[in-house]
Write a structure and sequence with these properties.
This protein has helices at residues 17-30, 47-57, 68-81, 93-112, 127-138, 156-165, 241-254, 279-295, 298-317, 323-334, 366-369, 381-389, 391-401, and strands spanning 9-12, 34-40, 61-66, 116-118, 143-145, 179-182, 187-190, 220-227, 230-234, 237-238, 259-265, 271-277, 341-348, 351-358. The strands form three sheets. It has a five-stranded parallel sheet, with helices on both faces. Strands 10-9-8-13-14 form a five-stranded antiparallel sheet, covered by helices on one side. It has three domains: 3-165, HUPs (Rossmann fold), CATH 3.40.50; 179-358, Argininosuccinate synthetase, chain A, domain 2, CATH 3.90.1260.10; 368-401, no CATH class. The protein has 402 residues and is of the alpha/beta class. The longest helix has 20 residues, at 93-112. 42% of the residues lie in helices and 19% in strands.
């Protein structure tokens, strides 16, 4: 589709410098209406100000969608039922938000009769892939416009000059040295001094958590109830998905839990250093895995755990709407039918320590595991078990000696 044939564009809009410039650039370049679409996935934002700025910058309409409950219910919780974690550390906060933002953008495009969608992700990062795979997976007929891959405004100086030319309001406050992304699951930081992986993050950078050193000297105990692997209550109080994660973020943050500093492998091929705060998610994953220790069969857990890296990689790389992720999700969810019960946790100075667990589906049998006298386990049976399992080792040893 050529520029002169595009009739209307829906832009994923945040109100910041980049997407504000993109909003004006799209309307000037394509000479068509541009709808500014904003997704509220839990970031702290003055939405009235964002709406006003969007209209002032030339948007035909500013559409703001509250996606917090759907984000946690349909994206965060399914991933946590799968124990998703990328490269052993990252709980996929940004990766999980992008598909819901893209999916709603496609829906908005259908509602307003747009034939093109656009985003503000650069040509170096993962987000361009995540957004565009969502667009393609949900409506391949939409034209995708990625300004950072086509325009000549490839520096902050040029962006500022363009904004000044078109009277686009630019924040006069001191610019943060970091690039950050926030939603209900986490906040991430990149850039600035973090580009040197030797530099330690500055304490004033963090927003969701106190340092472990500054956390209370007295531990906080909490209980989380799960139903089919999904958290449903804290300390006996049933909460909506967004409210539950919000409360865990508060509890984790005030106890210094959930900070992560890592160098990860981006899908596009380069390594990137990121610092993350995921207080509620860190608590949830620890509680969920602990409950599984008494509710999942050993062999089922082995197979499921072998699939976690692949599932996590699919989410990180932007394949949320792929048939393989959906297939794995069904497998993950199927084994969660017995993951019901309660986990008690001790939160203390950056640590999330399981302190107790119980379940009506528990496979743990005290009368089998006890060190006291029992009538259900004949210890002499272990001799034949050991001999059979050691047979191949015995044969190898005999051959070596020969």
């Amino acid at each position: 589709m050529t520029r002169d044939r595009i009739k209307k564009i829906v832009l994923a809009y945040s109100g910041g410098l980049d997407t504000s410039v993109i909003l004006k650039w799209l309307s000037e370049t394509y000479e068509c209406p541009v709808v500014a679409y904003c997704a509220d996935v839990g970031q702290h934002e003055d939405w009235d100000a964002v709406r006003g700025k969007g209209i002032a910058t030339g948007a035909e309409e500013v559409i703001i969608r509250d996606l917090k409950e759907e984000f946690v219910r349909d994206y965060v919780f399914p991933a946590f039922r799968a124990n998703a974690i990328y490269e052993g550390s990252y709980l996929l906060g940004t990766s999980l938000a992008r598909p819901i933002i893209g999916a709603e953008q496609v829906k908005v495009a259908h509602e307003v009769g747009a034939d093109a969608v656009s985003h503000g992700a650069t040509g170096k990062g993962n987000d361009q892939v995540r957004f565009e795979l969502a667009y393609i997976g949900l409506d391949p007929k939409l034209t995708i416009i990625a300004p950072w891959r086509s325009w000549d405004l490839n520096s902050r100086t040029r962006l500022m000059a363009y904004a000044e030319k078109y009277d686009i309001p630019v924040p006069v406050t001191k610019k943060s040295p970091y690039s950050s992304d926030e939603n209900l699951l986490h906040i991430s930081f990149e850039g600035g001094i973090l580009e040197d992986p030797w530099n330690e993050p500055e304490e004033e950078m963090f927003k969701l958590s106190v340092s472990p050193e500054s956390a209370p000297d007295i531990p906080t105990y909490i209980e989380i109830d799960f139903s089919n692997g999904t958290p449903v209550a804290i300390n006996g109080e049933e909460l909506t998905p967004a409210a539950l994660l919000t409360k865990l973020n508060h509890l984790g943050g005030e106890n210094g839990i959930g900070r992560l500093d890592m160098v990860e492998n981006r899908f596009v091929g380069m390594k990137s250093r990121g610092v993350y705060e995921t207080p509620g998610g860190t608590i949830l994953r620890a509680a969920h895995r602990d409950l599984e220790t008494i509710t999942l069969d050993r062999e089922v857990m082995k197979i499921r755990d072998s699939l976690v890296p692949r599932y996590s990689e699919l989410v990180y790389n932007g394949f949320w709407f792929s048939p393989e992720r959906e297939l794995l999700q069904k497998t993950m969810d199927d084994c969660q039918q017995t993951v019901n019960g309660t986990v008690r946790l001790k939160l203390y100075k950056g640590n999330c320590i399981p302190a107790g667990r119980k379940s009506a589906n528990s496979l743990y049998a005290e009368n089998f595991a006890t060190f006291e006298e029992d009538e259900v386990y004949t210890q002499a049976d272990a001799e034949g078990f050991i001999r059979l399992n050691g047979l191949r080792l015995k044969i190898q040893a005999m051959l070596r000696r020969a």
